[in-house]
Amino acid sequence: MTSPPLRERFETAAGLGHVLIITPYFAPIPSASTDLMKALAEGLAEEGLKVTVLTNGPALAARPVMTDHPRLKGRIHRAWNPFLRRLGMFHKFGEYLWFMAFFLLRGLAVRDVDLIFVASTPPLAGLPAALLARLKGAKLVYNLQDIFPDSAVVAGLLTGNGRLYRWLRKAEEATYRVSDLVASISPAFSDYVQRTVPGTQVATIPNWVDTDHIQPGDSPASTAFRRGGVFVVQYAGTIGLMQNLESVVLAAECLKEIPDIRFVFIGDGNAKRALEELAKERGLSNCVFLPLQPLDQVPFVYNACNLGVIPLKPGAARIAVPSKTWNYLAAGRPVVGCVEEDSPLAVAIRESRSGAVVPPCDPARLAQVILEYRNAPERVRQEGRQGRDYVEAHLSRRSAIRHYLQTFDHLLAQPAGGI
């Protein structure tokens, strides 16, 4: 945990030490970033900082019982968003605009803010957040989770040489300029920001995993997936346009004659229906599709497989680092990354000795590697242990919170500047 002197310096530099976190997804809404933002808010609050969260909320009719952390009671403001979790680009665009309008207006009413922390989802959220920071006299930290608008190009939503792309690129570069600090999740992202907008203050703080919450271990819920000695290959997360899950289904087709290998896809997204149709067209009884699971089931989900698979479209691994990778490693499960050899994800897999890397869009090679793991149970166990050791040493919640505290402390000690 962070030492008391660090907290004292933060509070001295920041007055009340009040951090406003702006994120579209926070518990109980499931998403890839939900656990990250929840852990950050709770971790900062546990260190004695005043934390306020502005986020989306579920429809009132479907609102579950929410048990907020005691230190965040009354400080999480959730806005009902009529577009939330609805599929299609129109609804996603509406969700983003609605949320940005909410946090800009609601943020004006939050008093005595020292620092605003805004996630890079939705894209361009940093610009209205920068306006809010200026109005509040606060520092702005832009949390860079992926490189936009390049991510939209990889997803097939934009062309890389069109006028809209060039406009969005200039807007994203403007976000870097107006931010007091860009907190990126990989050294490659940090290098990109500094090359694109020289002079930008950047800190590299990788996404983390709650190693206390997700631990290796079986339960009735997880072992049910592997009943009868089945070797389970699993993807859990967003089934969207950045993922290359078609290659996984085609790998399943290569292995359909091997009865004890099962492919499990857990999640929802714009690409799920087409993926289910592909498996149906190919007559693949070894593919199982399940909905997104509740947050309290996350440890069981990642313990339910023998091998995790992280497939991304060509180029996507250079502009995004899926945090679900660390969940598999925390559960002691090796992973196969279907990504380029020089991507940050491939580097992390090799560094942690927790899995294998195969080229994107190569289902035959993926099928071969899966078969190798199925035939080598000791390799599965060893790489699973190595992955767990790696996240405990480098990607734990505790070390990440300490890094953020030190970064915020340094930023708030700097003289105020304009945007």
Protein described:
The protein is an alpha/beta fold. It folds into two domains: 4-208 and 396-412, Glycogen Phosphorylase B (Rossmann fold, 3-Layer(aba) Sandwich), CATH 3.40.50.2000; 220-394, Glycogen Phosphorylase B (Rossmann fold, 3-Layer(aba) Sandwich), CATH 3.40.50. It is built from 16 helices and 13 strands. The strands form two sheets. It has a seven-stranded parallel sheet, with helices on both faces. It has a six-stranded parallel sheet with strand order 10-9-8-11-12-13, sandwiched between helices. It starts with a helix and ends in a 7-residue tail after the last helix.
CATH topology of the largest domain: Rossmann fold
- Round the Cα radius of gyration to an integer and report it: 21 Å
| CATH architecture classification name of the largest domain | 3-Layer(aba) Sandwich
| Mean pLDDT level | 87
Tally the helices.
16
Beta percentage is 15-25%
> What form results from the Cα inertia axes?
globular
At the first level of CATH, the class of the largest domain is Alpha Beta
Strand-pairing-aware structural class: alpha/beta
Biggest β-sheet description = 7 strands, parallel
Through-space gap between termini: 34 Å
Percent helix, as a range, is 40-55%
How many domains? The number is 2
Q: Unreliable stretches, pLDDT < 50, 5 or more residues?
A: 1-16, 61-65
Strand order of the largest sheet: 3-2-1-4-5-6-7
What's the CATH superfamily of the largest domain, by name? Glycogen Phosphorylase B
Order of helices and strands: HEHEEHEHEHHEHEHEHEHEHEHEHEHHH
Strand runs, count: 13
